[in-house]
Amino acid sequence: MRLMYAFFIVSLVSIISADIFLRTPRLPAKLPPVVVPVAKPHEETEIKAATPEDPGPTATVVSPLTVLTKTSADTPAPAAAPPAISRADHVAGTALPGPNHFLHGQFTVTNSSEFAFSVPPHVVNPVLRGGFRAFAKSSLDSTSPTPANVDMVLMNDRQFADFTHGRPCDATFDADSSSNQTVNYAMPPTHDQEERYHLVFQRTGTAGAIVVKADFTVSFQ
Q1: What is d(CA 202, CA 149) in angstroms, rounded to the nearest whole number?
Q2: What is the CATH number of the domain that holds 199?
Q3: pTM (2 d.p.)
Q4: Tens-digit pLDDT profile for residues 122-158
Q5: Beta strands 150-156; 195-203: pairing state
Q6: What is the DSSP string of 16-41?
């Protein structure tokens, strides 16, 4: 009986020992050595004093205003759209001749008398200035000549062509029938070509020839 009891005890201890052995984690027989990196000692930078032979690097101080100004200057401005150009924009910008004193003297009008002049291109404000006095030719020998009325008309080439061919025509400027007239007329501007004009004196219903004393100048501005 005792022998069986002893055998039971030994078997139980063996079982418990085996279970403990199986539950215990196993470590490797030999662990590899751990290598710890060694930090290099910090090398201090040697600071050298500036000398005339070695002044060292030059520092440039840039202010915020300088940066903004340079950025604005380097940025190209958007190109503006070109303005529309009309014929009137070509008026001006050229050297103009002096005043043209194209009529100064006395002449006789039996039907009509014409005096031509031209306005050069690119004239903004041509001006016709002058005046005339008209008398009956038969009365010039008297101490008091008799005034006589004449028509004065300013025409361009087209209008004058209609006038000379007896066609209905208009006029650039006309003065009332008179024996004494002063004129200060701002003419139309010219563009890329000159404009030719005709100053015409025409006798009215007065019988006989008429003597006209006239003085006219066209100026260019």
Answers
A1: 9
A2: 2.60.120.680
A3: 0.58
A4: 999 999 999 999 999 988 888 889 999 999 999 999 9
A5: antiparallel
A6: HHHHHHHHSPPPPSSPPPPPPPPPPP
| Tens-digit pLDDT profile for residues 26-54 | 555 555 565 556 556 555 556 565 566 66
Q: DSSP label at 159?
A: H
198 contacts 152 by C-beta, under 8 angstroms: no
Q: What token pair was written down for 18?
A: 């085996």
Task: Give the DSSP H/E element, type plus range, for residue 200.
Answer: strand 195-203
**Residue 40 to residue 202: CA distance in whole angstroms:** 119
Write the CB contacts of 97 (distance below 8 Å, at least 6 apart in sequence). Answer: 120, 220
Total domains present in the chain: 1
Residue 109 lies in a domain: yes
- Per the structure block, which two tokens stand in for 7? 């055998």
Q: What is the DSSP letter of 167?
A: -
**Residues 6+ away with beta carbon under 8 Å from 150:** 109, 132, 134, 177, 178, 179, 201, 202, 203, 204, 210, 212
Residue 151 lies inside a defined structural domain of this protein? yes
| Helices and strands in the chain, H and E counts | 3, 8
Measured CA to CA, the distance from residue 59 to residue 45 in angstroms comes to: 19
Q: How far is residue 174 CA from its own chain's centroid?
A: 40
Residues 185, 128 contacting (CB under 8 angstroms): yes
Q: Tell the residue number behind the tokens 């380097």, with chain if given.
A: 74
